[in-house]
Design a protein that fits this description.
Length: 511
C-alpha cells in the first residue's frame, strides 16, 4: 500500500496505474487515510464504500481512470448530500447527478470520493460556513483558502488527492487557486454544462477543476466540455484540448499588464510579483508588453443584488423564516437586495454591464492578453467572513443580535421608502462605494471575466510573505486553447510546487 496519496498531477497518476506502478485501490486507501488524518476540513462528505466499488472496477483506458476525485458540494451526485453548504438544506439528498459530473465519472473514469466544502451557495469568496465550519489553507493553517471552491483547492494543494471539481461564477476557481498555489482555469462561458436545472441568470457560472498542472485542466475539458441540450448556453468541443497543448504561436502577441484591474487596492508585494511574472512570460515567449489603461465600472453591488433572485428561488417558501440558519452575510445580502433592488437598480446594472463589456472588448481590440493579480493579497485569516478590510459594520451586525435585527428592520424601512423614491437604492450604493470601497469591490479582479464571459486563468507566481500569489491572465472569448498555452509556457519555465509546502515546515527547515 502507498504510504501517501499521489503527490504529482492526475495525468501522471493515470500513467502510473497503466504502468502497474500503483493501483486505484491502493491509491484510494492512501487518499481515505490522508483525509481522515487531515486537519484542513476540506471535505463535507466522504463515501468510502462507493469509492472502493468504483476503484475496484476502474477502467484504466479512460482519461482519469481510477483517479480518486473530490466533487464540490454545490454539484449534485445522486444519493449524496445536496446542501449547498447551508444549514437550510442540511438533510437534503440529491436525486440526480449534475451532467458534467456524470461525464467525469462515466466518460472520464474518475473515482468519486466525496464532497468538498464551499461557501454557502457559492455566495462569498471565503472558506467558512455555519454548516461545515472553517476550511484551512495547507500552506498555513489558520489562513483562508478563499471560495467558493474552498475544500477542492485545500484537498488538491494539501496533497489529499490530485483531482477536484470547482465552479467559477465570480472567481470561485481562480480565487482559491491563487491562495493555494494551484492552476485555476475558467473557460469561456458555456464551455462546460451547468445542467440540469441551470438558471439562465446571471449567465456567469463556468464549471471546471482545481489543477496541479495545465494538462490536468486541459484533460478535464476533454472529458467534460461540450454541448448539452439541457443547457442552451453550452459550446461545441472537439475534445482536443490536451492534444493541442503547445501548438499555439505566442511570439509577437501583445500583453497589457494591469495588476489592479478594476481599481482594486493591492497589498504590498503583489504588484511586484505579478509584474515580474508577466515580464518573465513575455521574455520567455517573445510576446510584447503594451501600455494600456482599462477603466471598468464598479458593478459588484448591483450585480450581486440581481443574482440573489436565484437564491430566493432556491429557498422558496423557507425564506425569510430560514434567515437565522443562513450565514449572516448571505442573509443580510438577501434582505439588502429585497430592500434595494428594483427596476431602477436593474436598469443601472444593465448599463454598467454594457459599459464593462465594451471596456473589455476595446481592450482586446488592442492586446491579446490582459494580466492582473488574482487576489488583492496573500491568504487572509481563515475565520474571516469577508475578504475586505472594511468589516466593522458587518462584524457588528454578525456579532450583535440586537444590531442584526435592527439592520433588518432598517432594510425593511428602506424597502418601503424605495416605493416612493425608486432612485434611492442607486444613490445609497454610490455612497457605499465611496464610503466602503473595499466592500463593494470584493472579487473585482476576477468578476469581470464572468460578466464579460471570456476565459481567464490564475497561474502561480512568486509568493508574498511565503504564501502563494496568483497571476491572472485574461484572453478574448473562445481563445481557451491559446490561454492554455500561456499557462503552459509559465509551467515549463517556472514550474510551481504540485502540493503546498507549509510555511511552518519551511521555517523549521531553515532554522
Amino acid at each position: 500500500m502507498a504510504d501517501t496519496p499521489w503527490q504529482d498531477d492526475a495525468c501522471s497518476l493515470v500513467d502510473a496505474f497503466r504502468a502497474g506502478d500503483r493501483s486505484p485501490v491502493e491509491e484510494l486507501d492512501a487518499t481515505l487515510a490522508a483525509i481522515e488524518a487531515s486537519d484542513l476540513n476540506a471535505f463535507s462528505h466522504v463515501d468510502p464504500e462507493r469509492a472502493r466499488a468504483a476503484a475496484k472496477q476502474a477502467d484504466l483506458s479512460l482519461p482519469f481512470g481510477g483517479v480518486p476525485t473530490a466533487i464540490k458540494e454545490l454539484e449534485c451526485v445522486e444519493g449524496w448530500p445536496d446542501t449547498g453548504g447551508s444549514l437550510v438544506f442540511k438533510d437534503q439528498i440529491a436525486d440526480h447527478t449534475s451532467h458534467h459530473i456524470a461525464r467525469l465519472l462515466a466518460e472520464g473514469g474518475a473515482v468519486p470520493v466525496g464532497l468538498t466544502t464551499s461557501s454557502e451557495f457559492g455566495g462569498l469568496n471565503v472558506s467558512v460556513t455555519k454548516l461545515n465550519g472553517i476550511t484551512h489553507n495547507p500552506w498555513q493553517h489558520g489562513r483562508t483558502v478563499g471560495g467558493s471552491s474552498a475544500g477542492s483547492s485545500a484537498a488538491v494543494a494539501g496533497g489529499l488527492l490530485s483531482l477536484a471539481t470547482g465552479g467559477d461564477g465570480g472567481g470561485s476557481i481562480r480565487i482559491p487557486a491563487g491562495y493555494t498555489g494551484l492552476l485555476g482555469f475558467k473557460g469561456t462561458f458555456g464551455r462546460i454544462s451547468r445542467a440540469p436545472h441551470a438558471f439562465m441568470r446571471p449567465n456567469t457560472v463556468v464549471n471546471g477543476n482545481l489543477s496541479r498542472s495545465v494538462r490536468d485542466a486541459a484533460r478535464y475539458f476533454d472529458v467534460t466540455a461540450g454541448v448539452d441540450r439541457y443547457d442552451p448556453s453550452t459550446l461545441p468541443s472537439d475534445g482536443t484540448w490536451e492534444r493541442g497543448l503547445g501548438t499555439q504561436e505566442l511570439k509577437g502577441r501583445t500583453i497589457a499588464i494591469v495588476p489592479n484591474l478594476g481599481g482594486v487596492t493591492l497589498e504590498p508585494g503583489v504588484e511586484e510579483s505579478v509584474r515580474a511574472g508577466a515580464e518573465a512570460l513575455a521574455a520567455d515567449t517573445g510576446m510584447r508588453i503594451v501600455d494600456l489603461s482599462i477603466e471598468l465600472p464598479n458593478l459588484a453591488a448591483q450585480w450581486m443584488m440581481g443574482n440573489l433572485a436565484t437564491l430566493v428561488a432556491v429557498l422558496g417558501d423557507r425564506w425569510p423564516r430560514c434567515a437565522d440558519e443562513l450565514t449572516d452575510e448571505v442573509a443580510l445580502g438577501v434582505f439588502l437586495a429585497q430592500a434595494m433592488y428594483n427596476l431602477n437598480t436593474a436598469a443601472v446594472a444593465e448599463e454598467l454591464r454594457v459599459q464593462a463589456n465594451e471596456a473589455m472588448a476595446a481592450a482586446f481590440d488592442q492586446v491579446d492578453f490582459v494580466i492582473a493579480a488574482t487576489n488583492p493579497g496573500p491568504a487572509f485569516a481563515a475565520d474571516a467572513v469577508t475578504s475586505n478590510s472594511e468589516t466593522d459594520l458587518l462584524d457588528l451586525v454578525r456579532t450583535s443580535p440586537v444590531t442584526k435585527y435592527a439592520a433588518r428592520g432598517a432594510l425593511f424601512t428602506a424597502r418601503v421608502a424605495t416605493a416612493f423614491a425608486p432612485k434611492l437604492p442607486n444613490a445609497l450604493i454610490d455612497f457605499a462605494a465611496k464610503r466602503f470601497p473595499d466592500m463593494v469591490t470584493m472579487g473585482a479582479l476576477t468578476i469581470i471575466s464572468n460578466v464579460y464571459g471570456n476565459p481567464a486563468v490564475s497561474i502561480p507566481v512568486e509568493p508574498v510573505k511565503g504564501l502563494p500569489i496568483g497571476m491572472q491572465v485574461l484572453a478574448p472569448h473562445h481563445e481557451d486553447a491559446l490561454l492554455f498555452d500561456v499557462a503552459l509556457a509559465v509551467e515549463r519555465e517556472r514550474p510551481w510546487p504540485m502540493v503546498a509546502t507549509p510555511v511552518a515546515a519551511r521555517a523549521a527547515a531553515t532554522a
